[in-house]
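BACKBONE GEOMETRY TOKENS
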Amino acid sequence: MSYQPLSELAIGKPIGDIRVRILRKWFGINFKKNQMITFDLLLMDEKGTVLQASMTKTHSNSFDSNIKEGSIYVISNFKVTRPKPSFNVISAPYMITISRETLFVQIELNDLIIHAYHFEFAEFDTLQSRAKKNYILTDVIGLITSISMLSKVYVSNNPEQVARRIVQLKNLRGEMMIATLWGDFALIVDDQLIGQRTNRILILAAATVNEFRGKNSLSICSASKVYIDLDLPIVADMKASYKLSMIVEDESSTASFIAFSDVGEELTGTPVSRLALIGDLDQYILPEPIKKKLIGQKTLFAVNPITKDTDSEELTFRVNSSRILDGPQPPAITLSITASSEAKPSTQLTKKQLQQEEEEHPSSPPPSQIQKDLFPESPAKKLEPSCCRESSPLKEPKLE
């Protein structure tokens, strides 16, 4: 049986059955009136398209108990409508409206690959434009750098005290943001983490952006979800002890790349444990020997996007592997590292393409000279990788 992809749904067009995973479910609640308004779902199909679905509270009781997060369903007899006027968890031109006639049939397919999570991460420096504007809610990810004690406070229209905890997050750029967790969400973060240096990564999905005294902060709403240390590549990246930020360019444009851990060490030719021996190292300025090696070099990259500025549509890419090239190269598939400050989407290379290019254009010899230039009084040798992997991401100095 064939199913209609979510990407082919549109208002006013014929609608077929869809096969999707339920990524999230939640009740839309008006906290000022303490009333439930809607029952909502976030759906994803096997092509990776994501849509929000919603039903009125009248029909919610018959669906909530029978719908499980993470399970796969065939859904039929629904409508395609415009997004809600506020509190949408994704950016999409339409949504699915569920009625009493809508059917959900749970199925078991072990060989069907549909991701379990979907986030549209926003950079912290773009949150100002979202303050007090809740048409689309905000997803953020960050390293937990500080945690407040659990407290209980009174809030409007609630006769009982509500648990509250304040968490400070640091993103990939080193920027800080405060998030306030309420109710059961405040209990997700353990009190034992208070005062400790950890590498716990928190994802706050569908948050609201508030502004107080000129500063932005995040808070939860009824659509929010909080996750800690999910098994995702971006979480592993943020736990890494080594991060190298680059602006690269080809003949078409420029882009922002980030290399973590072993990939960053391979590019610079220096393990983070060696860089830590430089007493006056500035984490925002590359040492001169590394600059000479990287700036202007023709390099092949295999990359994938990790974050997106949802306001400007600019992407940041994670470097999976790289190879510095010798001699003249085809300009359409090579990128050079530059000092440019702009960042726009650019050429991506798959690992297969990278391997083919490496075979045609051999790499440069190992860059042991860089370590000799950085540490002239000590032999240039590669330390054991475990020394780098065990170091905390909060320890300074580190190269960014």
About this structure: The longest strand covers residues 18-30.
